[in-house]
Structure formats: structure tokens, C-alpha cells
Amino acid sequence: MVVTRHTRPRRVWTPSADAVIYLDGILRVTYTPAPRGGRVLLVGELDATNISAVAPLLAHASAEDTLTIDVGLLEFVDMAGLRMLTGLCRDGAAHLTNVPTGMRRILALLPEAEAADLLPDCAYSPA
Questions:
Q1: How far is CA 27 from CA 44, 46, 79, 116, in A?
Q2: Which residue from 43, 52, 78, 82 could staple onto 73, CB 3.0 to 4.6 Å apart?
Q3: Cα torsion angle, 66, 72, 74, 78, sign
Q4: Half-sphere exposure (Cβ direction) of 6: Cα atoms closer than 13 Å
């Protein structure tokens, strides 16, 4: 009796394009590498309870190139979270995309020059 073994093509393991870099009960942070910078997706609530863990992660992720931070799925952001995000934007380390209406309202309270710099890719016009 002859047994032939069917061989499958070898699969090379590659990490997933999206990596969860932070997860707690209220916030998930996903990072997707890109040739120029990377993309971070924030889902849930960014506030004083998780800002001390998230801030260094985003600073590290933006060390190489400008980071795109998608905030469209944030349900809540307190002032600590907003300060952290705007600080990254002012430093040129990141820019925000998919900015929700509630966050735009808060940004509208900032002086016009500061707020316009934070949303370069959005049709932002202060009231």
C-alpha cells in the first residue's frame, strides 16, 4: 500500500493589520500601520479614567510620522481626553478625522485659531 501525502502550500504568518493596543471596559483603541504614519480608531469613552494609559500609547504611535486619529465612534470625551487629543494635534503628531458633532461643539469654544488648526481636513467654521 502506498500512502501519498498531500501537501498544502505553506502559509506565512503575518500579524493582523489592525491591532488592539488598549482595551478596558469603556474604551478600545485599535492601531493600523500605514506607510506614512498610522491610523488609530477610538471606540467608546475617552476620559480621566483611561487617559493616563492611552496618552503614552498614542504618543509612541505618533513618534515615527503623523498619526490619523479617527474619533467618529467615541461616545464620550471629557476635557482630559480632549486636551490630550488637541495636544497631539498642536504638536503636529496627529490629526483628527470623523469628528462628531458634540466634539465640534466643544472645539467651537476654543479660540478660532486653535480650533481651525485641530481640524484641517474638516469643514470647520466657528460660530
A1: 5, 7, 16, 27
A2: 43
A3: positive
A4: 1
**For the whole model, what pTM was predicted?**
0.76
The DSSP H or E segment spanning 54 is helix 51-61
Per-residue pLDDT of the chain (127 residues; tens, 9 = 90+): 454 444 544 444 344 478 999 999 999 999 998 877 899 999 999 999 999 999 999 998 888 788 999 999 999 999 899 889 988 888 888 989 999 888 888 877 766 546 555 555 443 333 3
Residue type, 44: G
Q: How far apart are CA 12 and CA 7, in angstroms?
A: 15
